[in-house]
Amino acid sequence: MQAANQRFLPLDVFRGLTICFMIIVNTPGTNDIFAPLEHAAWHGFTPTDLVFPSFLFAVGNAMSFSMRKYYDLDNATVLSKIFKRTLLIFLLGFIMYWLPFVHHTDDGSLAFNSISNTRIMGVLQRIALCYCFASLMIRFLPQKAVWIISGLLLVGYWIIMRFAGDAADPYGFSTNAAVHFDKLILGENHMYHDKGTISEPEGLLSTLPAIVNVVIGYYAGLYIQKRRPNTLSTLIRVGCFFIILATFWNTNFPINKKLWTSTFVLLTAGLDLLILTLLLYIIDVQEKTAWTGFFTTFGKNPLFLYLLSEVMVIFLFFFTIGNESVYAWINNHFFQPLAPGKAGSLLFAITYMLFCWCVGKFLDKKRIYVRV
């Protein structure tokens, strides 16, 4: 992350919007939530499905500023910086899933969480890998080659998913090539477990098309920095083109967040370009900036505030009051009596997001910006 005078306000606001919404959708009080705040069950798309790809798009935006520092550095130094950052982000994600390193047993004692059963992949791990591969391509290849490889990643992933999965249902939950590959390489004990099912929504194979979200975010950031007269119209045209292409391709390769299909990449990148265009119009053209401060608080410390929100939830679930977790106790004794059902669940999420914002505001006032 760069100093504020080295990046554009709309990009900071975009990052802040992404983190803000991510915290809200990740921390509902109960499983009884409003439909737009749920992920699509399998094929399909909801507003919540836009959050993670927008995070990757924002990573690309930030790279369009940070990688300028690499222009005058030799390749060995640049590679060292890229790999160190990749490893650090990946380890942060891995350790987060290992927390709190112990769990409650049936007899009330604590037992160590074996690393042999710890999930390997996850949100930060995917961010780390996408950042790494996108950075390497952008550093060592001409722009045309980067776009060609990005296209090959999308088409190649489609071909693999179409022909390497079970012939009867190549895009099914347990019959697709991505889950087969993750079980083979990662092993079931290191994958995501939910209600008796085993999958990996941030798996290895499905990370390949996710790299393209970062690439598109990077070149969008570069293009915006040039301040051309037709910037907004170009972003709109490209965004609409991606969305239309995704819509037509959806008939053969369904839009699916958990599989991170190529159509999902195009749809989300297109929407992100339109959202960013709207922010550019409001902030740069209309010069309406009074409202932006709330979101730039998140945008200035995005990774730290995301980690804070996730780690706190882990410990709120770990500690108990009576027979329920602190997380559930707070929701059941404060928010559900105040607003039963979905409304209370949303109120819990918004309150939690505002707490994280307060931490971010404190850090901003102290000019503390956590860099990875």
TrEMBL record:
Keyword terms of this UniProt record: Acyltransferase, Membrane, Transferase, Transmembrane, Transmembrane helix
Domain of life according to the entry: Bacteria
Molecular functions per Gene Ontology: acyltransferase activity
Transmembrane residue ranges: 12-30, 50-70, 82-100, 120-138, 145-164, 203-222, 234-253, 259-283, 303-323, 343-363
Protein name: DUF5009 domain-containing protein
Source organism (scientific name): Chitinophaga sancti
